[in-house]
Amino acid sequence: MPAEVAPSARRVRYSRIRELAEMAMRMDGVLKLYFGESSIPTPDYIKQAAWQALQDGYTFYTENAGLPSLRRALAAHYRRLHGVELDPEREIVITASGVQALNVAIRAVLDPGDEALLLTPAWPNGAANVWLANGVAREIPHRMAGGRFQVDFEALEAAVGGRTRLLVYTSPSNPLGWVARVEDQAALLALARRHGLWLLADEVYERLYWRTETLGEPAPSILRLCTRQDAVIVVQSFSKSYSMTGWRLGWLVARADLAGKAAQLNEYIVSHAPSFAQKAAETALERGEEELKAMLARLKQNRDLGLEALRAMPGVTTPEPEGAFYLFPRIAGVEDSFEFCRRLLEETRVGLAPGSAFGEGGEGAVRICYAAERTILEEAMKRLGAFLKNWQPVRAPVL
Questions:
Q1: DSSP letters of 221-254?
Q2: Does the predicted model carry a pTM greater than 0.85?
């Protein structure tokens, strides 16, 4: 019998976002709203800090957990933003991207056959990392109530079984823009305590929060509610707040035993994040507030522009996003969101992400990243509106 690819790897589906994007990359003049990144490049002061770090010799190995100076800077960051005291030596681990933080955290808590519950629609990398760990990903869709997405706690409670070990949620949410309120976080934490589960919060978009009068105030963190003994993991990244997507630099915060194991696992995956990038991240934390707030002001204007345009389109329902930089409109008649996005791309050169890429509850919707330049977003909304006037629904294929 010939050698085969491992079943755990085969269970990981090809990203439908990437599939659509690769079609777009073969075309000219595409308005790219499918990836989750700003069109604004990394600020010069961060790039200059990386160059200075290279000149200063930060080209060698660091601790698996990351530079102590960056971990101390992050501890100060949490103290300032959330009033939370963390031990930088035992509870913070630097990773080579937010997705790598997800990877080591999930590998540290799941054995083969263990189950993870994931609130969806959600960025697909969480479920993919569960499957890669030979675990079982079970999706619990958000429900719509009162004009906003909400956690379906009844379905969540019913889904907990004998092999359930982990509960994963994202707040602010990619792709929904939903933000867990304090009462939601308290209920999720109580459920995790009651059933002896690890609770993993993806808080990568915490600074992109619109339910506050002051731009830059963070979304509530689960770290404000839990104790240092709770089985809680927070995944974070420098990508969104500091326009550093290509730098691949993130971190996790967790109980000391989990953080220690995650640092050990770093050794066997990437050893550690790049040393000069870590020094640049220290500068981002130290000097980034002014640039961050200017970016947030632009994003807020784009959010409002996109909302207004979508709500004027017939058959389109768009909940108001409370955080992140996405709109997730549901379009009446769309049963195959990938086919809808493919036709939109081919006929109008507007690139959106299909809702089906984000798991259960996502079909029938599309994700629009409004972090693009305003002129691109305006033109994309015009083309989408014109396309919908002539669009005829296509039935989903029977499999």
A1: PGGGTS-TTS-EEEEEESTTTTT-GGG--EEEEE
A2: yes
